[in-house]
Amino acid sequence: MTRMPEHPDPPRLRLRIVFGEDEMIGPGKAELLERVAQTGSIAAAGRDMGMSYKRAWQLIGTLNAMFDAPLVESTRGGPGGGGAVLTDAGHEVLALYRAVEHEATVANSGPLARLHAKLKKAPRQ
Q1: Regions of the chain with pLDDT less than 70
Q2: Taking Cα atoms as reference points, which of 38, 88, 46, 44 lies closest to residue 67?
Q3: Predicted pLDDT at 63
Q4: pTM
Q5: Residue range of the domain that includes 42
Q6: How many distinct structural domains can be found in the chain?
Q7: 50: DSSP letter
Q8: What is the CATH number for 64?
Q9: Residue 51 Ramachandran class (φ > 0 left, ψ -120 to 50 alpha, else beta)
Q10: Measured between alpha carbons, how far is 125 from 121 in angstroms, rounded to an integer?
């Protein structure tokens, strides 16, 4: 009988970059930016993440205020509908965050694998 691995999912890092007491970007804000780029809408991006409309707009407002240029530009709704797009700065910040995340994962693959190997084994069934 073939046994399933005890811990099939490899460990992964969830990286939060803190710039000061209140300014940070992490996996949630990065995902929100990605979903805005995909959907063309802050509300839809938030909905996709199970987030309220108000919370999604607050997070985008925080991100826009943190950086030297807005990361997301939005247009009001109306007959043609509203929308939102990532600016060039938004694409750059998102790419830089993902690069830091990737480099941290690669640099720590050995220690992560050793930590993973030390997890308690699941009991045999």
Answers
A1: 1-8, 77-81, 122-125
A2: 88
A3: 97
A4: 0.84
A5: 17-117
A6: 1
A7: T
A8: 1.10.10.10
A9: beta
A10: 12
